[in-house]
Amino acid sequence: MRATTKPSTAKCDLNTYTLFLLAESKYPGCTRLAEIMEDLSHDSVNRFLLREQYEPKDLFDEVKLYINLVGGTKSYDDTVIDKPHSDPKLTELIGYVYSGRHHGKNFTQVQNLEIPENGLIVHLKKFGQVKVFRRSFKNETHRYYIMFLPDKDALFLISLTELNKLHSIHWGIECYHRAIKQVCGIELFMVRTSEAIKTHFFSAIRAFTQLELMRTEELIQNWYEVQRNLSLQVARDFILEHLEQKMGLNTHSQTPVNA
Prior knowledge:
This protein has 259 residues and is mainly alpha-helical. A 3-stranded antiparallel β-sheet has the order 1-2-3. A hairpin with a 5-residue loop joins strand 2 (128-136) and strand 3 (142-147). The chain contains 8 helices and 3 strands. The model is unreliable at 104-108 (pLDDT under 50). The chain is 42% helix and 8% strand.
């Protein structure tokens, strides 16, 4: 985190930007936040994104009191931040990757293997022995999972039942990836420098932790409830306001009908 020598007078700060990501699911950018807040300029938002230097430890320090650090299972996965319309020549940290969503091709050779139900021991180049499992889905697609244990005998004995148990735990990461994209706006940035993009990423992940804390404290039932309730209020106000104004409806449109 950036060290400060005196209290900040900046109008845009981490809390403001985090709440913006939770509230605005469709329209990104510094200008949009400025429009919402009215007394905030888009330059102030842009300066915030460029100025701050948050690190993973900053988020950990903020939430560690709510985390049980004893026991549990560590589960890792990656995700692709989808920016198909960004130019890698102009935007830092952006590059091209093969994607099933945009290319429709699968470039993995594991699909050529005959994998039994209880998995197959294979040698992973530059790593060592791992066990590969294949799961089939209703749409006739397959997904492959690799498991590793330092003890080769234990690796050999891993069963499909154990894979399914671990997969049910790992599924939480898939849900997390969906949430940070759909309700935390991690893909919705319109800045180009790595500093600004990293601040945006940090804010989006922090937004998710706020949703998760609200869920565990039973303030909301799920991560999607906050934006759903916001849209309900906006829709309700719009309908009631225009019902009072009659909206200039034509006379024939008010004719009673059976429905």
